[in-house]
Amino acid sequence: MDTQTRTSGVVTATLGLGSVLVASLPVALMTDHSPARYSVEVVFSRRPEHDEVKGLLGARTLEVLTDAGYPEVRLAVADRRLIISNTTLEELRDGLAGILAGRVDEISSEIQAVRSQAAAHWREAAVVEESRVAAVTALAGSVTFRSGHHEPGREADAAQSESWANEGGHGR
Questions:
Q1: Which listed site, 48, 62, 145, 165, has its alpha carbon 20 to 30 Å from 21?
Q2: Which pairs from 103-107 meet CB under 8 Å and 24+ separation?
Q3: What does pTM read for this prediction?
């Protein structure tokens, strides 16, 4: 998945899983002394963010793994690596890798939805604030300091000021 998302003003590629870090595999693999289960390290496409790590290590991921038939598998994150413990390369090849990739995609989608919703909220709040500032500026601009001078339309200005004072924020 090559989708890009905007986070904190910086464009980052969607998190993905790359390849197995061969140097991290047990030396005795495929020998008479090969361990039955071991840890496999997989390189992320980029450094995962805090929310992504939290999602990967959370209860929902354990539930997904258990439901898929991998209750003994455990995950850890170290820098740009996902450490998959208590598994085998065969298990990963035969389905576990796809389940983990799907979970990473699911977490990315959830985080993107939350961020999109927050961005929409902030855009809406900015529009409301801009409108409020314009109203305050207009009201302040309607204030004149002239003694004894009566201008045509002054009553209309006073009525407008009164309506602004009654629409909120007055007397706080």
A1: 62
A2: 103/56, 103/61, 103/64, 104/15, 104/16, 104/17, 104/52, 104/56, 105/1, 105/14, 107/15, 107/51, 107/52, 107/55, 107/56
A3: 0.64
